[in-house]
Amino acid sequence: xxxxxxxxxxxxxxxxxxxxxxxxxxxxxxxxxxxxxxxxxxxxxxxxxxxxxxxxxxxxxxxxxxxxxxxxxxxxxxxxxxxxxxxxxxxxxxxxxxxxxxxxxxxxxxxxxxxxxxxxxxxxxxxxxxxxxxxxxxxxxxxxxxxxxxxxxxxxxxxxxxxxxxxxxxxxxxxxxxxxxxxxxxxxxxxxxxxxxxxxxxxxxxxxxxxxxxxxxxxxxxxxxxxxxxxxxxxxxxxxxxxxxxxxxxxxxxxxxxxxxxxxxxxxxxxxxxxxxxxx
Length: 280
Hints:
Elements: H1 3-16, H2 19-30, H3 48-74, H4 78-98, H5 101-112, H6 130-156, H7 160-170, H8 196-199, H9 201-207, H10 211-220, H11 226-233, H12 238-268, H13 270-277
Helix pairs in contact: 1-3, 2-3, 3-4, 4-6, 4-7, 5-6, 6-7, 9-12, 10-11, 10-12, 12-13
């Protein structure tokens, strides 16, 4: 939703509340413990439109819907809260429908291989259309959870723009663990600004073993081409494969390609990456 649509959705919700429930909503908002707090002068005696503006100006466009839902549930207006959240399903569905065929396949792959609980079985994802994947996400993670998981998967695919737009459209606040925002700096960046995979190039060349699996995923995510994939795959040893990968297609892919490579290494060579992260 745009800023205007967010305001309209909240204002429409207020129009449907009884006077008693609207007064209860203002009371809940005034006594909300979490920051930022809202001053009494901005709440007492204010109209539906004025409270809508207070929500958006205090909690931002992305936070206003979430806070409104929280307040509604606090006064047992669950039906109204559910209605306000309905846009999350539509937003997830729209996001999935707008992905390219390659990215949609990558999204399904990331969902199946997601390590965190709850896990999603292969037979619920493989060959499913965007409508079915939307239902799987919401039935597994709830509507708010579906948005957060979708943003997580989009970021893992380096679709940061789509992730940020989904969060903005739904009013959900989310950031990756260890990150200050969902579309932040390079995933493999280090304190000295040198990319992680460049900094540890020699050890990665000598110690990474599952090169074929990594190449499969780099091809799937379009970091390397089919011709590069075939050329590297026939090289006899893992270190030689890795050396060719670094000197050729990975170098050409730049920071974004290296970010994708880094995320794959985190999954495929977890303990090696953790060891290298601990090195100064």
